[in-house]
Amino acid sequence: MHSHGEKIAIPVNDPRSTVVAGWFDQALMRHRTGDLVQAQVFYQRVLDVQPEHPEALNFLGILMQQRGQSVQAEQLIRRAIRAVPSYAAAYTNLGNILMVRRRYEDAIAAYRQATLCKMDEIDAWVNMGAVLRGLGRLPEALEAYRQASKSNPTNAEIHHRLGLVLAELEQLAEAITAQEAALRCDAGHEEAIKQLGSLLHRVGRDEDARVALGNTVFQLGEDPMALRLLQYWLQLMPDDPIAQHRLAAWFGQEEETPARASDAYVTYLFDRYAEGFDRHLRQELSYQAPEVIANQIAEIVGAPAADLDVLDAGCGTGLCAPLLRPYARRLVGVDLSPRMLDKARERGGYDELLTAELTAYLETHSQSYDLIVLADTLVYFGALEAVFAAAATSLRAGGWLAFTVEAATKESPPSGFRINQSGRYCHTAEYLQQTLTQVGMEIRSMTTATLRQECDQPMTGYVILARRSIILAS
After folding, report:
1. Which of 273, 305, 418, 447 is most deeply packed, by most CB within 10 A?
2. Which residue from 445, 353, 344, 365 is spatially nearest to 403, judged by alpha carbons?
3. pLDDT of residue 4
4. Overall number of domains in the chain
5. Which domain holds residue 343?
6. What angle is formed at CA 380 by the lines to CA 376 and CA 383, rounded to 5 degrees?
């Protein structure tokens, strides 16, 4: 609820009118800064000289209401209205006082009179809508909020309240439109974001609900509002993998870090990302992972002879294909995202492209490959024991595993890996060495390189080539 006033043109012939105007300005200044005692003194000085000064009566009435003296407040506001019967703001303030005193019908009447005096008296429409909604008179509340929205189409709160009433009236499509309008006016309106997510979920548009909530959460980063939105998101969709992963990435404790990103999260993320993936990586993130890994393969494995069975694990849109093709007798690409694989088919270069979860695929293709490449793939794995063991199984004796990971540059996590706010994992060098050794892999090269830009900062990663021993460790 709002209390306000408006300037009334008053013909004043009193020679002290300039002094009175000065007192009134002093009263307003002190009122706005919260000095109610001195504001009251100056309002009273004005009224001592001009007892029916409508603005002084109106604002003093507001002040008395602020001090909890509703009876005196009502009397003063009614005097202002008697002095100027068309004083719309005074009627609005009278409605506010009557509402606080639970005289709801009288309050509604005062608000209506305010709108008759001034059709675009927005506070009157908004406050009348609130009272009517509280009384369960939803069609009347809807009309009040529509009028308020028409008078002030850039006010997010008005669109939000309109949307709430529309939802209660089961006019869900219009309710969604109203909340979307609120967010166009104020993208950070928390309740509008929540309501939009809820409404979209309610009509079965879960994907749109994820986008609405997820985009805002991503933009907010570690802001407390992001945590509240994630928690709300999980109330709507308790098993949603996107919300679960982002909650862990931004606000999870070290001991709560999931072992890896879920299949559903990775599929969702990259299916959405597929269309603009290459442009975004190359132009905006200066993505270098395919090149740095190819350089290391050239240096360690040797010149390409098109005589290897090669697996591009987590191949995405196929950025590695042109770099790996010269080594490959046969080049296979595996990814969880069907849409990313569609882009890889368009690029060409593969003998086979498959939709599959990486670890499961490797486990079922024993001794099938001479070279397995994971460029920017293991950033969605925290614990690497299972995927490294599966890779070792899938490699032939003497085969090569080439991969990149993001380097854990902060204090080393006890587990050897950490989930970052990006939703990707980083790893320590010690953890990588230990885990590869456990599965019978020998590191032949471990270098650091800039893999991409992250928030305009270089993202440092490890580029590793490891070779499978002739006899696998048990």
Report:
1. 418
2. 445
3. 61
4. 2
5. 271-468
6. 115
pLDDT value, residue 3: 54
Question: Which H/E stretch holds residue 358?
Answer: helix 358-363
* CATH number for the domain harbouring residue 27: 1.25.40.10
CA 390 to chain centroid:
36
The total number of residues written for the chain in this structure: 474
Is residue 243 within 8 A of residue 215, CB to CB? The reply is: no
Residue 9: what pLDDT? 46
The span from the CA of 87 to the CA of 58, in Å, is: 9
Question: Rounded distance, CA 293 to CA 360, Å?
Answer: 24
CA-to-CA separations, 425 to 60, 62, 257, 259, 437, in angstroms, rounded: 61, 57, 10, 10, 21
The pLDDT score that the predictor gives to residue 1 is: 43
Quote the tokens at residue 336.
């969880």
Domain final residue pick, 225, 256, 287:
256
What is the identity of the amino acid at 223? Answer: D
* Residue 288 belongs to domain with CATH number: 3.40.50.150
Q: What is the pLDDT of residue 14?
A: 53
**261 part of a folded domain:** no
Question: Does residue 416 come out as left (phi exceeding 0), alpha (psi in the -120 to 50 range) or beta?
Answer: left
> Residue 6 class from Cβ within 10 Å (0-12 exposed, 13-18 middle, 19+ buried)?
middle
CA–CA separation, 195 and 203 (whole Å): 12
Q: Positive or negative, the Cα torsion across 203, 207, 208, 213? A: positive
Give the Cα separation of 107 and 91 in Å (integer).
9
